Amino acid sequence: MDAVEVSTVVYVPPQEMYDFIVDFPRYANYSEYLESVVRDGDGALGTRYTMRFAWWKLTYTTRTEVVDTDPPRRIDWRVTKDIDADGYWRVEEVPQEAPEDVETASRVSLRIEYDSDSVSAGSIDLPRFVSLSWVIDKVKPLIRKEATRVVERIVADIEGRPREVELTVHTGPEAL
Length: 176
Known about the structure:
CATH architecture: 2-Layer Sandwich
Number of helices: 2
Largest sheet: 8 strands, antiparallel
CATH superfamily: START domain
Strand content: 35-45%
Radius of gyration: 17 Å
């Protein structure tokens, strides 16, 4: 399994950050490659999402499902179509990291684990003369960049103003 994890500190309490994450359909506003999100459920256990991505000459629709929640600390999800992938959002209170003019802070992390070998050529409509392995090699660095971009934009939105955000990014073939 490959993995990417992005985390940062946000100057809001954990419950506010958790509620913000649960409103997943708005993520299309943060992502360059996510065109739309349709939610079936309220964000709790069993909620399903249909997400349409577009990159280069490719479009792809995936489906995910919330498989566990621990409000306001964690939301676990898995992809239910075409690829072996899962992940979670984790929120931890870190009041010691809040600036003096802010009451508390939360560390928010997005972790995605995926098996790129689980993608079959038939699951993606590829242009002629384009191999699946070429697409996978091109998409891997985009996953890291996109995860980072999403977290940066979320921080600006939830705090009400842009600021320099310090991100911690880990990638690896196994546990990070």
